[in-house]
Amino acid sequence: MTVIAADSLVPTMCVEDKSQSSPIILHAPHGSRFIPDWHRPSFVVSPAELDRELDRMTDAHTDDIVRSINGPSSIIAGLSRVVVDVERFPDEREEMLTVGMGAFYTHGSQRQHLRTIRDEHRAALTTYFDAYAAAFTDLVQATLDAHGRAFIIDVHSFPVDALPYELHSSARRPQLDLGTDPVHTCQALLEGAKRAFKRLDIDLNSPFAGTYVPLRFYGTTPQVQSLMLELRRDVVAISRGRLVEELDALCSALLSL
């Protein structure tokens, strides 16, 4: 396992490169609660409210689920999404900018003012965002070079009840939401996930849509396939071991595609 740290200001990310033996990359971008001590003064809410915000916004246990799968490559963010959200577009394409939740959140799940980012901190946060994107891009490229294809499985969770920040809060909230992309999610990948998680109530792109693909490949390289697994948090709470088995089954099925 390789642990990447840009410098003392930038927390680690964990990258396990199995690109030579597997075409699969597991991703857990939102499972961390870590906020560097140097950045905590940027938050304008109380420590108690910040802890509550982390409870609401952290995809708890998704990093543990990814770590439990042997065989595929994996990349796990070491920094909380309330500091840097590594899956956001870095520009005006990001729809969550309308609620202050682009790559660098200024507002939180209740649409409350969460933090004011100091100029000296923004450079370090940008360094982390760019380093993460570069590491992911390099891992995908290595996987393509070795196999001619890459499968990204993007693992998330979401609360049973909608939070005020959600732009599509009236959408159905199934036990498993499969997030897809018209270029990067083939029918075989989608059907493989439906079979692996057949015990669950499943919907597509509801309440969250899309799936992560590094920008170098986004919209242009269909050999990079991606699927977002959005697991409802009550399901994660009661059946984490079963979910590991089902994700492992999906990974095994993808090897034959």
Describe, in short, the structure shown.
The chain is of the alpha/beta class.
Description:
By secondary structure, the chain is an alpha/beta fold. The chain has helices at residues 47-57, 62-67, 119-147, 187-196, 233-238, 240-254; strands spanning 2-4, 13-16, 24-28, 73-76, 150-158, 176-179, 202-204, 224-232. The chain starts with a strand and ends with a helix. A hairpin with an 8-residue loop joins strand 1 and strand 2. The protein has six helices and eight strands, in the order βββααβαββαββαα. It is 30% helix and 16% strand. The protein has one domain (2-254): Aminopeptidase. An eight-stranded mixed β-sheet has the order 1-2-4-3-5-8-6-7, sandwiched between helices. Helix 4 packs antiparallel against helix 6.
Question: Helix and strand layout, with pairings?
Answer:
Blueprint: E1 2-4, E2 13-16, E3 24-28, H1 47-57, H2 62-67, E4 73-76, H3 119-147, E5 150-158, E6 176-179, H4 187-196, E7 202-204, E8 224-232, H5 233-238, H6 240-254
Parallel strand pairs: 3-4, 3-5, 5-8, 6-7
Antiparallel strand pairs: 1-2, 2-4, 6-8
